[in-house]
Specification:
The protein has 18 helices and 20 strands. With 509 residues, it is of the alpha/beta class. It has 4 domains: 13-199, 3-Layer(aba) Sandwich (Rossmann fold), CATH 3.40.50.1580; 203-211 and 398-493, Cobalt-precorrin-4 Transmethylase, domain 1 (3-Layer(aba) Sandwich), CATH 3.40.1010.20; 215-296, 3-Layer(aba) Sandwich (Rossmann fold), CATH 3.40.50.11270; 300-383, Cobalt-precorrin-4 Transmethylase, domain 1. The strands form 4 sheets. Strands 3-7-6-4-8 form a 5-stranded mixed barrel. Strands 18-17-19-9-20 form a 5-stranded parallel beta sheet, sandwiched between helices. A hairpin with a 7-residue loop joins strand 4 and strand 5. Helix 3 packs antiparallel against helix 7 (190-199) and helix 15 runs parallel beside helix 16. It starts with 12 loop residues before the first strand and ends with a helix.
């Protein structure tokens, strides 16, 4: 049963405190949008009350401001991640759409910063400005905190172009020139402002279940965490422990050092082998350097290695269905490179040859798209009737489950977003599986990669995450979409997972 879409929003409004700001925004990109001159400073509060009386609507505040942080220069754009009331009395207001709005502005060639904007009741300089800078705010204005009320609970955003900085205060001869530059930048920003306004609407978000971390990923991350706790930093990790930039960044902050090959690791140091598995040659190199190895290879990947070794030991050729440039395939291929051929697609499956068609087996990369892999396997079975199949499906349970869940979601939405890093095979396959259902599908590393234009006219969004993507990144996407309008969140469960793998002895005690 489809969830009801929330109530509609009122017509969008762009709030420009000054007349010159309003005129700068009077461009074709904002044609048909109501642009209101709110007045400077606390006078804007009256405008906000009047607009808010009509109920929730998208409100975008656009104008100039003063910089607080040293890295923010005249002509730079600041997108508020949070609006603070510098006069006290009101709680900070989060702006969850700040990152995709900033991305839209950067796409126009603008220099953009994302961070808190603080509203004061007058121009600040000297010690007052220095004090505000210590709070972590990037810019200061005199209206944004008051204009939050204009949205009446609807979508709200703030875009400010910097005129003055601590090193170039407002009351200086260069201000008129900087002001003109800022107004030109504000005009250039108009297409991004329009994209934000067009993306604002009530929506339903359907969450695929299961999604995010699988047991193999949880195990690999826990292994690195425990290794750091037990052996102390640094602990070296060959390649990315799992294919997710956010996970790698967090572990780096804890003291992990990621290397490409074990010859970069100091002799005798601790090294963790990533979840995707490695070839025997890598293990031999680690032994030669007297490295203390902790193996985080996913047990399901290790199963494929075992199968391949068993087949090749019997003199059989192995056709490995997978992507040749993926680390998992590289590791599996290393078990017996003279006897293994990687088969990447259906066309290759129709032409690949083996020395003896009666002595052949196939195996699979664990993170493939199930439907594609099965078609390739079917071709191989037809061409080589004696081919030996895996005892159990090589594609891991988590990949299968997530693909089943995304198909269920994609059948009833207008847009699918998959959270995962671009080098994550299972994440990429999720987006491809959704796209084959006939719905636009996009893979994003995090909320900052959302494109506002995807959401124009879209009322139903499907959302999932690859097996190596943390679920808190999904939460950020939901928060961002809710920042574009009222959201009803529903779950589409297609199964449950209770798998857990044991840890290697080096870190389990």
């Amino acid at each position: 049963m489809r969830a009801a879409v929330p109530d509609a929003l009122g017509p969008p409004v762009v709030c420009a405190p000054l007349g010159v700001e309003r005129r700068a925004l009077d461009v074709d990109a904002l044609r048909g949008v109501r642009i209101v001159r709110t007045g400077m400073g606390r006078r804007s509060a009256g405008t906000a009350r009047a607009l808010g009386a009509d109920g929730p609507r998208p409100v975008l505040v656009a104008g100039v401001a003063g910089a607080l942080a040293p890295q923010v220069r005249p002509g730079d754009v600041v997108v508020a991640s949070e609006v603070r009331d510098g006069c006290g009395g009101r709680e900070p207001v989060a702006v969850p759409t700040a990152k995709p709005l900033a991305a839209a502005l950067r796409a126009l060639g603008l220099r953009v910063h994302v961070g808190p904007v603080v509203t004061t009741d007058g121009v600040v300089d000297g010690d007052a400005r220095t004090a505000l800078a210590t709070t972590g705010a990037l810019a200061v204005d005199m209206e944004s905190a008051d204009l939050v009320a204009a949205a009446a609970g609807g979508p709200f955003a703030v875009v400010r172009v910097v005129v003055d900085t601590p090193g170039a205060p407002l009351l200086r001869p260069g201000t008129p020139v900087r002001g003109l530059t800022a107004l030109r930048t504000l005009r250039r920003a108009a297409p991004a402002l329009r994209a934000w306004l067009d993306a604002c609407a009530p929506r339903t978000v359907r969450l695929a279940e299961p999604r995010s971390f699988c047991a193999g990923v949880e195990r690999a991350i826990e292994i690195v965490d425990r290794a750091i706790d037990r052996f102390g930093a640094p602990v070296y990790v060959r390649r990315q422990i799992v294919h997710n930039a956010h996970v790698v960044r967090r572990l780096t902050d804890r003291g992990a050092i990621f290397v490409q090959e074990v010859d970069e690791v100091p002799r005798g140091a601790h090294v963790v082998l990533a979840a995707h598995g490695v070839s025997p040659a890598v293990r031999a190199d680690a032994d030669a350097r007297d490295l203390q190895v902790v193996d985080a290879t996913c047990p399901l990947v290790a199963k494929v290695h075992t199968e391949v070794k068993r087949h090749t030991a019997r003199g059989q050729s192995v056709l490995l269905i997978g992507h040749a440039d993926h680390e998992e395939v590289e590791g599996t291929l290393g078990e017996a490179p003279a006897h293994i051929t990687v088969v990447e697609d259906e066309q290759h499956a129709r032409t690949v040859d083996v020395p003896d068609p009666t002595r052949v087996a196939y195996a699979m990369q664990t993170t493939l798209a199930v439907d594609e892999a099965m078609r390739i396997a079917a071709i191989l079975r037809e061409r080589f009737p004696a081919i030996r199949a895996p005892r159990q499906d090589d594609i891991c349970y988590a990949t299968t489950n997530r693909q089943r869940a995304i198909r269920a979601v994609a059948a009833d939405v207008d847009l699918v977003v998959v959270v995962g890093s671009p080098n994550s095979s299972n994440s990429r396959r999720l987006a491809e599986v959704a796209a084959r259902q006939g719905v636009p599908a996009h893979l994003v590393d995090d909320v900052g990669e959302l494109d506002l234009t995807w959401f124009a006219g879209v009322r139903r969004v499907g959302l999932s995450a690859g097996a190596s993507a943390p679920d808190d990144l999904v939460d950020e996407v939901v928060s961002c979409v809710s920042g574009l309008g009222p959201v009803t969140v529903t779950a589409t469960p297609t199964g449950s997972e209770n798998v857990r793998f044991t840890l290697p002895k080096e870190v389990s005690r």
